[in-house]
Amino acid sequence: MLPTVHELLQDHVTLSVSCVDRLYINGYLPKMQRSGQLAYFLGQHLGGRIPSLAQLKPIHDRFVASVGAFAQRQGTCKMPFERGQRKDDIAAAHHRRFQADEGVVLIGTAQERCSSFKSHKRSTPRGSVIFDFHREPVYVNHYYFYVQDAQWGPGFLKIGSYAPYPVKLCLNGHEWAKQQLRHEGIGFESLDNGFLSCEDPERLQQLCDQLGSSDVQAFFDRWSRRLPWPLSEEDRAAGYEHRLTIWQMEFSLTQIFDRPLRGREFFEQVIRENLDLGRPDRVDLVFPRRITRRTPAPRFGYRTRVITQGVNPSLHIYYKSSHLKQYFKEGRGLRGELTINNPLDFGINKGLENFDRLTALGRQVNRKLQEVETLSQHCSFSDRGLDRLHKPTVVGHQRASAMRFGDPRVMALLQALCAFFHIPHGFRHRDLRPRVAQLLGRSLEQYTPGQMTYDLRRLRLKGIISRIAKTHRYVVTTYGLKVALFFSKVYLRILRPGWCVLAETTHNFGQPLRRAFDRIQAEMDRLCRDARLEPAANP
Question: Which of 35, 229, 511, 528 is the most buried (most CB within 10 A)?
Answer without folding.
Answer: 229
